[in-house]
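To: structure desk
From: M.T.
Subject: fold request, one chain
Message: Could you run this one when you get a chance? Sequence is below, nothing fancy, just the single chain.
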Amino acid sequence: SHMITYHFAKGVLGDENRPAAVRASSPFAAGLVAELCSLPLYVPVDVISQRMQMQTTQMNLNHGSQIPTTTARRVAHELVSSQGVRALYRGFGITAVEFSIGSASFWITYEYVKHYCRDLDWRVSPLLSGTCAGALSTIVTLPIDVVKTRIQCASASSPSSSSASAAASTTIDPRADSLSHVGTTPALEHHRTIMSSARYIYRTEGASAFIRGVIPKLLSKGPLYAASMFVYELVLNASLRDK
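Reply: Done. Structure tokens follow.
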């Protein structure tokens, strides 16, 4: 749905009858539109996946090699049962900001790099363009992703448990890129808003926390975006030949 919406929006905004400025920025605007249309489906999946990552880390610490099975269905059921359906959309605002900026920056970078690589073989161009666009969008959105993850994973804790949570949260997990606290769920009072969460992260962990895990993310997302855009161009070229 994202690709279809993007392609349609880019075609409308990039029409030759549009002003030059609109045509030039059409990949950016189309990326925004495509992401905003996809968010109602993305956010619950993103919330559940972040919870599963956090619970797996906690189980690994508590149980060693014997890690109980955590399924997406179980996590979703626990969230809805304890906090209601709204829990699946926790952090919707910041997720919209992150994903929309990421999508817009990705597509405008992709289209312009592809334009400058137009003399290359069509099979090489999407690989190079996808890698460059994926790297830029990852770097741009990583600080937002850190804050978003804390907000999504935050849960209300009782006054009696808040001191224990604070004590447990002093240990930082170097393996995580967005999930930073080991053995505890981030306390909700520190992550109620984007600004309060960002201030708390900066105060307790420093500025480096906002770019933690940037190298692993680049190494993992570069090939992913390259492969995705290769398939995108393959399908697009095939569909255009059939017309």
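Reply (cont.): The mean pLDDT is 78. Let me know if you need anything else for the meeting.
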